[in-house]
Amino acid sequence: MDAQTVDELIANEYPPVHAVRAAIKQLRAAESDDTADLLHRLQTYEAHLKRLYKSKEIHFIPLQEGRLGIGGRPGLGKVAQFPELGIDVVVTLLKEKEKDVPALGEAVQRQGIAWIWFPLAASQLPTDPASLQKTTTLFDRLQEQLAAGKTIFIHCAAGVHRTGAFTNAFLQYQGYDPATSRQLVKEMREVTAREAVVKHWRWADVILQYRETVSPL
């Protein structure tokens, strides 16, 4: 691996963590005086990405008349801060088998916040008509909330794959093109934009195609 390859990896707008780690492993295997500086640069960059992963801060973007934010599963302490953050609606993408999801919902609702549970599996995003109908119905409902000036927070477990797929699809459903949608995801949570993979981004295509079949222009 040479300096140009390292420059290109760091300059890449969305380099995933695994690609950086693979490059570090490759440099370590061939470690020499010539590669020491490159290894240091990549390790520094990896530390930056790790900080992005660990950050619990929620960044909101203005959308319609409201705001949208995304993240990982909030702890109870974070949920208690939601009213201060102005959150009106929480969308939980956790599956039924994941730990204490109803308890999370109860904690959210105790804060006077609307809770929507919409289970998703990152390994197998739904493509059947019934599930796509439920998804578009929810998107319509969320658009109404934004139009009413509400603040929405969307999360899964890590706030990466399911959150990225759902949020990207929701943004494109509202008319944003793929590049703009991904940039908006990055503004809300950079690690989500970096780590969600192709199949998660392409779920938006499935939803938009479904909408065309049921509501052709």
Any overview of this molecule?
The protein has two domains: 3-54; 60-214, Protein-Tyrosine Phosphatase, Chain A, CATH 3.90.190.10. Helix content is 59%, strand content 10%. It contains ten helices and five strands; from the N terminus they run αααββαβαβαβαααα. It has helices spanning 3-11, 17-29, 36-54, 76-85, 101-110, 129-147, 161-173, 178-188, 190-195, 198-214, and strands at 61-63, 66-71, 89-92, 114-117, 151-155. A five-stranded mixed beta sheet has the order 1-2-5-3-4, sandwiched between helices. A hairpin with a 2-residue loop joins β1 (61-63) and β2. α6 (129-147) crosses α10, α7 (161-173) crosses α8 (178-188) and α7 (161-173) packs parallel to α10. The mean pLDDT is 90.
CATH architecture of the largest domain: Alpha-Beta Complex
| CATH-assigned homologous superfamily of the largest domain | Protein tyrosine phosphatase superfamily
The overall pLDDT average reads: 90
Question: Helical element count?
Answer: 10
How many individual domains?
2
Order of strands in the sheet with the most strands? 1-2-5-3-4
Briefly, what CATH class of the largest domain? Alpha Beta
Order of helices and strands: HHHEEHEHEHEHHHH
CATH topological fold name of the largest domain: Protein-Tyrosine Phosphatase, Chain A
Helix share of residues? 55-70%
Question: The biggest beta sheet, please?
Answer: 5 strands, mixed
Radius of gyration: 19 Å
How much β-strand is present in the residues? 5-15%
Distance between the termini: 50 Å
Structural category? alpha/beta
Uncertain parts: none
The gross shape turns out to be globular
How many β-strand stretches?
Answer: 5
